[in-house]
Amino acid sequence: QVQLVESGGGLVQAGGSLRLSCVASGRTFSINRMGWFRQAPGKEREFVSSIRWSGGVTYYSEFVKGRFIISRDNAKNTVYLQMNSLKSEDTAVYYCAADSRSTAGLGTWDYWGQGTQVTVSS
């Protein structure tokens, strides 16, 4: 099993920046990808960004391209999401996720964090 803990959420003004962190523990050797999702009340959870643990291939949703940057520090078992030029519509609970090497290629996410609230005021 892998445990994920997010941090860095809070209240920020529109146009500002925020950096989220996600620390993985447990069987971290089994991680294939780590990523970020977000969900606002009454709305569907949506994909934000992901990164491969080995190789560093990244993916971004169209809504955050050019504004958000995902990065990793394998030695610290941590993934980051640098969020710039924040908009009110970015307000949501942000969840960290990871998938296992054993399910690589299936398009699944196997582990989830508890989430961290991001609120952008206009």
Describe it.
The chain has 122 residues and is mostly beta strands. The strands form two sheets. Strands 2, 4, 5, 6, 9, 10 and 11 form a seven-stranded mixed beta sheet that branches. It has a four-stranded antiparallel beta sheet with strand order 1-3-8-7, with no helix packed on it. The protein is globular. Strand 4 and strand 5 form a beta hairpin. The termini are far apart.
Spans where pLDDT lies below 50 across 5 or more residues: none
Return the string of H and E elements: EEEEEEEEEEE
Structural class from helices and strands?
mainly beta
For the secondary structure, the number of strands is 11
Form type = globular
Strand content: over 45%
Question: What is the helix content?
Answer: under 10%
C-alpha termini separation? 40 Å
Helix count? 0
User: Mean of residue pLDDT?
Assistant: 95
Q: Rg to the nearest angstrom?
A: 14 Å
Largest sheet: 7 strands, mixed
Layout of SSEs?
Elements lengths: L1 E6 L2 E4 L4 E9 L4 E9 L6 E7 L5 E3 L7 E6 L4 E6 L8 E9 L10 E2 L3 E6 L1
Main attributes?
globular; mainly beta; 0% helix; 122 residues; 55% strand
Short structural description:
This protein has no helices and eleven strands.
